[in-house]
Design a protein that fits this description.
Blueprint: E1 2-9, E2 17-24, E3 34-40, E4 47-48, E5 54-59, E6 70-76, E7 84-85, E8 90-91, E9 97-104, H1 110-114, E10 119-127
Antiparallel strand pairs: 1-2, 3-10, 4-5, 5-9, 6-10, 7-9, 8-9
Length: 129
């Protein structure tokens, strides 16, 4: 089996670089089952978690993954996105969904800031067969 390394640059507070190794069965090239998928969440689906925090379930069913993929996220917001914390922290990831929690470091409400305006952009790498 050949091993390939896939590198995602996670631009968070620490600016970490994380390397992920994935086993590939085909020695000449990556598996035809290995797929990169990208998408954008609906800005109207934020849920208030408490007075300051919000979360959003991001749907990636259209990618067709058969098991949990590797996911990288970013946040698109019209204003004050630099005060929102948690944009790259992924919770409860599955082959179809993941959840992102946000908090506003400027003591505002991330729900009020994001509802109808912010969306999560993602890239996922996983297997479809």
């Amino acid at each position: 089996m050949k091993r390939i390394a896939v590198r995602f640059v996670l631009l968070g507070l620490l600016g970490c670089l994380r390397a992920v190794e994935i086993e590939v069965q085909d020695k000449a090239s990556p598996s035809p089952c290995l797929k990169t998928c990208a998408g954008t969440s609906n800005p109207n689906t934020w849920t208030r978690y408490n007075t300051k925090d919000a979360f959003q379930w991001v749907d990636m069913r259209f990618c067709g993954f058969v098991k949990k993929p590797y996911v990288m996220t970013s946040l698109h917001a019209p204003t004050r996105h630099w005060t929102l914390v948690g944009t790259s922290n992924i919770y409860e990831i599955s082959k179809e969904f993941f959840r992102v929690f946000l908090t506003d470091s400027a003591m505002g409400s991330s729900y009020d800031e994001c509802m109808g305006k912010c969306h999560i952009q993602f890239m996922a790498l996983g297997y479809t067969c």
